[in-house]
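User: I'm putting together notes for a lab meeting next week and I want to include a structural view of one of the chains we've been expressing. I don't have a solved structure, so I'd like a prediction I can at least talk through. The sequence is below, exactly as it appears in our construct file.
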Amino acid sequence: MKFLLEATFLAFLAFAGASDITDCADSENRGRPLCIIDIHKHAEEDQVLEEVYVCPNNDEASNVTSNLIITCIIVKDNLEEDGGEATIQAGGVGFEYVEIDLKSKESQGLDYHIEVFTEDDGDDPDDPDDPDDPDDPDDPDDPDDPDDPDDPDDPDDPDDPDDSNGAK
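Assistant: Thanks for the context. Below is the predicted structure for the 168-residue chain, given as structure tokens.
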């Protein structure tokens, strides 16, 4: 139990005060984009800026239509020098939302690129390799496919013993 608490605390420290965050459940497959935003804010002299970004956010035009699980979060500080801190305050990978706190250093402003990805639900209508696409002409399990060799209603199936047109 003590080890688990220490590991959780160390993971929290890894994201606390970092200018960049990369947290992905699977480094090979980020998933599909849920929220992508660039945040640019100029700071006056001696001013420290704070911004809280929440994804998904119902106030923005996004493709959020269901409660999908976040699989990857990337926060990139675009300032050449260390521009500030990015911290995941709530949610995150494995949750349905993430709340990211951005804080600039004094007089430096904010310049962040944020990408949040969600699980691939397999129902992308534009994906030609989608196995669940009902209009896929190469789907071997499509009951309406006239060339399906396993179609029990195929009148010209030569291997069908009940087929009067078969070649047996």
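A couple of points you could mention at the meeting. Residues 92 and 98 are 5 Å apart (CA to CA). The chain is about 10% helix and 30% strand.

User: Perfect, that's what I needed.
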